[in-house]
Amino acid sequence: MAKIDIDEMIAPVVEYLPNRTSDEWVQAALEHQETILIDHATNELKAAQQAMTLMARNPLNMDIQNKMSRLAREELVHYEQVLKIIKKRGIKFRTMKASSYAFNMAQHIRPDNKGKLTDSLIIGSIIEARSCERFHKIAPSLDDELQKFYISLLKSESRHFKDYLTLAQKYSEEDIQPRVEFFLQCEDAFITQPDRLMRLHSGMPTTDLIAN
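The structure corresponding to this sequence follows.
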């Protein structure tokens, strides 16, 4: 894929997010690639599960059924692809403590049904956008196999964040922009704060990183 195509693809994601991933995070991720790969696989599985949860909770919303069904299938394919890379590299898959990135935003989800749906979809859009941005940021520094793989994910991930936003607005009775801005501020606060845990969605790495 030509460089200009990649830049055009990532542009809406970069515009959407409040900041770019720091070079410090990229360097720490490069030093702990095994951890990032395992966490990446876990996140792909969680993304598929979240999509199916939204389907189960909103059985009469056909747009949610269609878009989340496709998204779940794609995320499971990505999960399988990461597992294949992990196995090929002789990395032992293991469970790891999750980043509090998504949990931190989820604490602010409104309890009423409509507010819960809108907020969940907005958070989904932010998570997908950040994943896409980090794949783009780290790809140039990876070996050929991983670089090609991460760049291949940009197309679907950049579409996913738009799908989440479109659904959030469709099923909201009010303009979602204030809630989008609120959750983007939450995301910005987390991503820019010191974080001892090295994960795909972790904050600024500290000198005493925990990478397992």
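Residues 110 and 116 are 5 Å apart (CA to CA).
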